[in-house]
Amino acid sequence: MNQQEPVYLIDGSAYIYRAYHAIAPLTNKSGLPTHAVYGFTNILLRVLREKAPRFLGIAFDVRGPNFRHEMYQAYKANRPTMPDDLACQIPYIKEIVAAHNIACLERQGYEADDLLASAAKKLAGQGHPVIVVSGDKDLLQLVSESITVWDPMRDVFMDPAAVRKKYNLGPEQLLDFFALMGDSSDNVPGVAGIGPKTAEKLITQCGSLDGIYQNLETISQAKLREKLLADRENAFLSRKLITLIEDLATPELQEYEIPEPNEEKLQELYTFLDFSRLVKAPQTTAVALETKGFHLVQTEKALQDICQQLSKGPVLVLDTETTSLDPLVAELVGISLCSTAEEAYYLPIGHRDSEGNLLANQLPLALAREHLTPLFSDPNLPKLGHNLKFDLPILESHGLPLSGPLWDTMLASYLLDPSRRSQKLDDLCLEMLGKRLTSFAEVTEGDKRPDSFAYVAPEAAKNYSCEDVIGAFLLWQRFHPQLEEFGLWKLFSSLEMALVPILVRMEQTGITVDQAQLQRLSEDFGLQLAELEKTIYALAGEEFNINSTRQLGEILFAKLGLPQGRKTKTGYSTDVKVLESLARQHDLPAAILAHRTLSKLKNTYVDKLPELIHPKTGRIHTSFNQTVTATGRLSSSNPNLQNIPIRTPEGQKIRAAFVAAPGQLFLSADYSQIDLRVMAHYAQDPALLTAFRAGEDVHNQTAAEIFRVNPAFISPEMRRVAKTINFGIIYGISAFGLAAQLNLSRKEAATFIERYFAHYAGVKRFMEEIVEKARKDGFVTTLLNRRRLLPDINSSNKASREFAERTAINTPIQGTAADIIKLATIAATQHLTEKGLHAKLLLQIHDELVFEVPAAEIEATGAVVKEAMEGVMQLDVPLVVNTVVGENLAKV
DNA sequence: TCGGTTACGTAC
DNA sequence: GACGTACGTAACCGAG
């Protein structure tokens, strides 16, 4: 018997409103608004697809006042009546429901929620499990052993345990809880001045709303008692308003059973509404990629034939489809291959039916491996893909490692224009080729499950995946000659492509954090923050949201009358500079600053890092992005391990939580002053060249010049100022910016800059020449010929032009430094392998490489790495690398 | 309620 | 407007 199959009850009206508000207005060809229908249909199809329910009902509100309005005039009075452009969509929604033959629940004078409640209670009472599909908290009052609420948007199931976890209250207590709080969006009054925290406390204390009013005298806070007394009526009225009616007549179980939908009617509706994604007949438009040469490979014979064909080259284009974006858990669903723009092949391997069973008619992995290995391991056959950093570890973990030259269209595109808004395959195909590729969302029909691709039918997957390899091939035909034309081939093949497998390995390896240490830090920071919060409220004379710059500005400048500093677009700036300057006049700014620092560290690192520990490896695996920055640097995300704090003592505590594995040590090797050395080389400035060649402290030398003192008399403060100027120069500094940075007058700053350029005249000339060249060429390059376009360099808009000028100065320096560290990354890993050393590269932080090294190899590794890094490029000044060893990141 | 924008702060 | 390159968090806003 199928008694245990749940009945799904959808909160139809809620999703109509949600779709109407959340989705940008859409219309069909005849101008009918359709976005609410579209959003609703998507939710419905998602439930049908993901849950394949046998029993399903959908509840709707009926327009017009209901009994709640009679009870309380203001009920939902803040809600405008249904807008016309929504009302006109309702009939189509009903038609879609009707075409699916789904039971429709509605009744004059009641809301959808009441029908859901009545139906759910009745079915549950008959022993049928019920799943209410809704994101509305008011429905949580229904939750019981047999009634669950599912919010498909967040994919959260609320059973009694989940309710208790979220609210610290049982489902039966929620009504009273919400009654106390009220709900401003529905104009449910509640008790004024009681929010979630107080409401939770009261209900926990007294058990229920009645309990609270029966035991008012036990409530110690006089203020709170007053509030409760004053709004007693409202509290009980609120409860009535949000209590759902549970005894309306609703259908019997069998009436929810859904027969086959009326496909013809549905197609007719979708066509009329212009829901092209849902219209079955494939719509071929002028821009869609031609799909007639796409083939499914489902037999060994076919596989043999295509391998034979593909082995002829001249290149093997490939793309993998998987169950996850995380290569550590991703399983192969399919592989697409091509070597011409005409024919492409899709090998289905891991497709599943809705029950999760592997489909028949697929190639067993072992068989695919047997035939593909000669192809994939052919050292003379180049392998082309888009973002191979993703495919490489997937193929490797499935026993299909790649050999031969690697070519990547994403990297080619990046080198041709690193500032491109998107380097995604579909965006590039559209932009460069005018060809529209099927999106992932389309092929998975919006399925939000992480492994959604496994449930795509092989035929549809074939079309999608083959488009990708053909798209990559077509892009390559365009990019390859361009790489040659712009002298980028060496940079592409020997540097960026060589880096790919190294980044794969780094991401795979990950880094260990000491979870217990972070836990302690979290508690420690939490306590300090609570103290600071008290202090801040006392100093401010009121409670407010410390994280809100707007509220803070109000307190500092309006209430306390402190002098306003800079303004931002939206109000007064309260950034660290402003607060520091206010610290002399009042204690509040300093307390805010301390709070900011701590909460930043706690929220961004201490509390976030443990969440990112991988369940499989127990380590944290960042992504190193190779096509993001405009200058050629890498970036790091999820988490960003290139901005782990270092400057403050609190930051050091976080660094200390990054620990080397047992028996291993961290080795950090960083370039000394790499940016300034690159600038010295570019500028050929005698003073700078001499300083670096002599191994002098360049900040000290700058200090001596700008303060016009004997080097023996330079104070730490003077050196700090000089260091700021040295960095500022690289960024294309102005007197204004330097003054702001150092709290100097503009005149003083200007004097320092003048003296700097007087001494380092070559630097000034370099800057002028590079800007001039950028004006002429429209781009700048690095020493390895990496380019960055500067479309604004001749702009008539002064601000954008000047920005481009600063970029023209900074990019060759920052970009060359990026070239150097990338060369170093390749050289260091290669030398380590050659020497049989076992160090693993974990991090690259712009001028620094961090390795995890077996303790016994630490000295040899340090020497190899240092030598490799210092020798990668011959500049006119030496490259100097310092190495440090420690068991955690605070010590390196 | 949600995605986009703004302000801010961490790194090099 | 004013010092370059990133990424992430929290608040806020607009949509109606």
From TrEMBL:
* Residues in DNA-directed DNA polymerase family A palm domain copies: 651-857
Q: Which reactions are catalysed by this chain?
A: DNA(n) + a 2'-deoxyribonucleoside 5'-triphosphate = DNA(n+1) + diphosphate
Q: Which domain of life is it from?
A: Bacteria
- Report the GO molecular function annotations: 3'-5' exonuclease activity; 5'-3' exonuclease activity; DNA binding; DNA-directed DNA polymerase activity
Entry function: In addition to polymerase activity, this DNA polymerase exhibits 3'-5' and 5'-3' exonuclease activity.
| Family, per entry | Belongs to the DNA polymerase type-A family.
Give the protein's recorded name. Answer: DNA polymerase I
Q: Which organism is it from?
A: Thiovibrio frasassiensis
Q: What is the lineage of its organism?
A: Bacteria, Pseudomonadati, Thermodesulfobacteriota, Desulfobulbia, Desulfobulbales
